[in-house]
Design goal:
2 copies of one chain form a homodimer.
Chain A lengths: L1 H22 L5 H12 L7 H11 L8 H16 L3 E14 L3 E7 L3 E3 L1 E3 L11 E8 L2 H10 L8 E4 L12 H15 L6 E5 L25 E4 L1 H13 L3 E6 L2 E15 L4 E11 L9 H20 L6 E8 L7 H9 L7 E6 L7 E7 L5 H11 L6 E4 L17 E6 L4 H4 L12 H20 L16
Parallel strand pairs in A: 5-6, 6-7, 7-8, 11-12, 11-13, 13-16, 14-15
Antiparallel strand pairs in A: 1-10, 2-3, 2-9, 4-8, 5-9, 10-12, 14-16
Chain lengths: 475, 475
């Protein structure tokens, strides 16, 4: 063997020198090798599933500002230290705090039927005895607007039921189209005299779970209670409304609490050459209170943490620092992302990229990216290496994710991990968002894909920042 | 055309007379024609879906002895009268009554985690402050028996968690294998000093619903609270127990109420020749309280009612009377089926068949049957006519169903409608058993299959009763 190799030594080295120049033009040869090795890690088990299991078992639900949130912040720092990350810290974030209470609803006429409902995050409660009123169905916000033009009193004294169904991708109005019903339905209906709002769950499952999510009031506007109703019960309401008048009693014990604090949790794998330059691997640590936040966004936290750990294990560190950021308050205000961008404003020009993983547990498909066009050849070269994972799909544009989007005005290159999310909206924001829904092999591929792409950006000769302006497209 | 037909008249009628004798030997030719026409009704929409929609929308949950149960009894009689059935009546059935109350549980150590639980029907409650105790895992009733042999104090003062998972058909221990954990777990654990029982939901869904179902205590034995825990939370308990000791607090407000009354609802399509001879089309009208009893057993009620209605619409009535029986109390004691067999004991020798539909909303596969072997050729002939519906599968044996089984000792031929039940145990006994789960086309096929088979049995020259002895095999 040795003799044979020696005889080939000269021609072989010539070959090795020539191939990278042709095949890896946009990526330095050593970067390319490291990226390929990281991508290959996605084919076998990583520790990603362990992180989401530990987070959901040891902490569980962690709504912003709650005891669970505080436990998660401690948990996150302990884990990042356990994994050998450096500069592990919690950066405080002021947050509004809200508490769920009793929540029941029932049709009281024409027939008595309990409804599965859940208060929308931020909603005011009802009086203890509840609000009983006739229900008026509106297909959408636009339908409400039309209806009050025709009859200004159409919703006065009534409960407005926003009925539009959320369809799986490609089958009709999806999550993005219907979220405004949830976030602004109460704000839009209140000024016309509505006494409460019921929103068909902005979720794609027909299981009888109500999907929560945040709602907002206009400053100075009326604040009426708002709840989501399960798809099964929304169907019932529609059938009953098709027969005639329907009266519903809604009881919500939810309430805002005094403002509190949460924190972004940070930890780093220091870069070998330019440790002051940073690639952020982000996900959000907070969750809704109904489930254990496994899919939303325990999965993302696990992907980001494991991606950083895989990079730390690489034979050679990338030039720049990998910074894991587990963001606070994504679900109920986005204060964590804003706080990070503010606190690190001076440092943002040295951010080579900010990634976010907040699309659940599905298999990785690739990345959205928003950076200078000069980055495209390098990204395409990385994407080729992600093809074995099925994660080669690049989509130009987008804002990366709610938590990294506040870095857009500074021109930071933003990356969103794209995943198969065909079942994501079945469980997210419900009591059913629990660890058993996690797909370990998809987390492995996602962590490897993020590690590979992040390594490349942390190792390229220069930062490809965009001109500083807001990114406006959706992911 | 006319001329042509006339020329063929004699040979054609000879042909018509000869074919039935060869092809339809076990079925009289006119019976065969009627059966075939009924089977063909399953290929297009029937009104079956309307009956289950109306029952679930207008009544909803109807646990035995509850106001919902009373509403269902009134609803059933009104519908059978509306459809022109005769001798419509409610036959009173004494039942035990039980009420669900608050039901919460949480892991309090090593971490605080709420658990989704639901009291088992018939369970006693806990003190208002609940029962907090360490949890001991038992895979099954058999494992408990072994464990207390080895250590008589192994469950003393503890909450016993019966952990065995219910698998889909053919994948492992199924519903039938695990029901005893639910019905007798508390009775078996109580005498060894257990303070409560948690049973992994005897259901096949991984959605976070707890599956209720009845539990029974031994006369004179200790009565400890018993609840089902959702599969997702059972998984959590298993993971936490694998780490070390686990303490759970269980709060159940359920309680038995004074005995009450329910009723079997009957209505008939009178036979043309022997109206005193009867074919029963049965299903159970009661449901658990958590959902609206759409799949269990609104679907069966709809199938039985629609099958009778299709027969009533046939050009010629069958010889015998078709009697729809909507049974009381199937879920929590089976008093309705027993009461029917007792009240109609003198009439049972004139029962040509008793059918039950209690397997949900799936497509029909055929029938189990338990009658004299002399019936087999006729059944096989009917089965051939059911082939276009996919309902040709005959399985000898079984007891028809919980409600018709009490007629077994009298030798009444018993028939169970066999259906695809691959998703049945996902939703049954949960809050998720709602109308949106109904598959209308499957109900159509099921109603037509039952109508066709029932017509045949109501029209055959004689009754093929079994020797009077209990049927013991499963369906």
């Amino acid at each position: 063997m040795t003799k044979h190799v020696r005889r080939l030594a000269l021609p072989l080295s010539a070959l090795l020198l020539s191939i990278p120049i042709r095949a890896d033009g946009p990526l330095p040869v050593d970067t390319r090798a490291a990226v390929g090795a990281l991508a290959a890690r996605g084919a076998s088990p990583t520790r990603a599933v362990e992180w989401v299991r530990r987070l959901t078992d040891e902490v569980g639900a962690r709504p912003s500002g709650s005891p669970g949130d505080r436990a998660a912040i401690a948990w996150g720092q302990a884990l990042l230290r356990e994994l050998g990350f450096v500069r592990v810290r919690a950066e405080e974030v002021p947050v509004s705090v809200w508490e769920r209470g009793v929540e029941t609803a029932e049709v009281v006429a024409p027939f008595r039927q309990p409804l599965v409902v859940t208060a929308l995050g931020g909603s005011v409660g009802t009086p203890a005895e509840g609000i009983a009123a006739s229900v008026v169905r509106m297909e959408s916000l636009e339908a409400l607007e039309e209806a009050v033009k025709a009859d200004p009193d159409v919703v006065r004294g009534r409960i407005v039921f926003f009925a539009r169904r959320t369809m799986k991708a490609g089958q009709g109005p999806g999550y993005g189209a219907n979220v405004p019903m949830r976030t602004t339905g109460a704000a839009k209906a209140g000024p016309h005299g509505a006494v409460a709002v019921l929103v068909r769950s902005v979720g794609t499952s027909r299981s009888r779970f109500a999907h929560t999510g945040s709602t907002r009031y206009e400053a100075g506007g009326p604040r009426i209670p708002a709840a989501a109703v399960s798809n099964a019960d929304a169907d019932l309401l529609e059938r009953l409304l098709a027969r005639g008048p329907v009266t519903v009693r809604l009881v919500l014990g939810c309430r805002p609490l005094p403002d509190g604090t949460s924190a972004n949790v940070l930890g780093e794998v220091r870069g070998r050459e330019r440790p002051d330059e940073v690639v952020v691997l982000g996900a959000h640590l907070d969750s809704w209170d109904l489930g254990t936040g496994a899919v939303d966004d325990g999965a993302g936290c696990a992907i980001a943490i494991e991606a950083a750990r895989l990079i730390a294990e690489a034979p050679r560190r990338p030039r720049r620092t990998i910074r894991v950021v587990l963001f606070a308050n994504e679900e109920s205000g986005g204060a964590g992302g804003r706080a990070y961008a503010e606190r690190h404003a001076a440092e943002l020009p040295k951010h080579a990229a900010a990634f976010e993983a907040d699309s659940g547990t599905g298999t990785p498909l690739g990345f959205s990216w928003n950076a200078a066009g000069t980055l495209e050849p390098a990204l395409a070269a990385v994407a080729e290496l992600l093809r074995p994972l099925g994660a080669e799909g690049l989509r130009k544009g987008g804002y990366g994710g709610v938590d990294v989007a506040p870095m857009a005005p500074a021109g930071v290159p933003l990356f969103g991990l794209r995943q198969d999310s065909s079942t994501y909206f079945d469980v997210h924001h419900t009591a059913d968002d629990t660890f058993d829904k996690i797909e370990p092999a998809s987390l492995d591929r996602s962590a490897a894909a993020m590690a590979a792409m992040a390594y490349a950006l942390a190792d390229l000769p220069r930062i490809h920042a965009r001109p500083a302006e807001p990114a406006t497209e959706g992911r």
